[in-house]
Amino acid sequence: MILDRLFAAGYDVIFQRAERGGLTAMRAEAIGDLSGTVVELGAGTGLNLAHYPAAVDRLIATEPDPHMVKRLRAKVAAGEGGGPERVTVAQAGGERLPLQDGEADAIVCTLVLCTAPDVPGVLAEAVRVLKPGGRFRFVEHVRADGHRHAAWQDRLNRPWGALAGGCNANRDTLAALRAAPGLEVRGVRDDSFPGVPALVRPLIRGEAVRV
């Protein structure tokens, strides 16, 4: 669709203010100590590529949207993230990952679960591909705690999603993470999504572990 193509084309520009406001630092903190085989869900245009440390031997960057994948592949071909020798780009949704059971040491999920059609399915697939003790790192905007703010998220969810690539402003992602069989949430920080409308500013970041 035209809107999807335009959203992908403008994605990096749209996020510039957020990146300068602190999102880049959040990405770096979520990713910077990972190692081994890492899977990124919803890699988009590749804004996380620069943050993967040398200890990551293999990165499988998955993304369902073909317009995003085109831009992601171009960045990898140009050498970002270590280039094609280290990074494999796969056009795939989080519900069906191109990995064997227990193949991944870690999964990275930044601003992805708001658009996933089936969040429990994504988390079940994460459990499947993670090794026991594997880490699920997340940075996600979420449903507001305050009743009034959450009510506005509910009212504006549909028009917001139409403008923002299917993003849900009111998704209770933390509840979904805590309810996922095989994942144990061990660290969560409440934060604020910088440089975005107040509607989607509530944000959490942290880690769940495959148990």
By CATH, the topology is Rossmann fold
Strand percentage lies at 25-35%
H-E string: HHEEHEEHEHHEE
What is the number of independent domains?
1
The first-level CATH class is given as Alpha Beta
Mean pLDDT over the full residue set: 96
Please give a structural write-up.
This protein is an alpha/beta fold and 211 residues long. The protein has one domain: Rossmann fold (3-Layer(aba) Sandwich). Helices cover 36% and strands 26% of the residues. The protein contains six helices and seven strands, in the order ααββαββαβααββ. It has a seven-stranded mixed sheet, sandwiched between helices. The mean pLDDT is 96.
Which SSEs are present, and which pair or pack?
Elements: H1 2-14, H2 16-31, E1 36-41, E2 56-62, H3 66-77, E3 87-90, E4 104-110, H4 119-129, E5 130-141, H5 147-163, H6 173-179, E6 183-192, E7 202-210
Parallel strand pairs: 1-2, 1-4, 2-3, 4-5
Antiparallel strand pairs: 5-7, 6-7
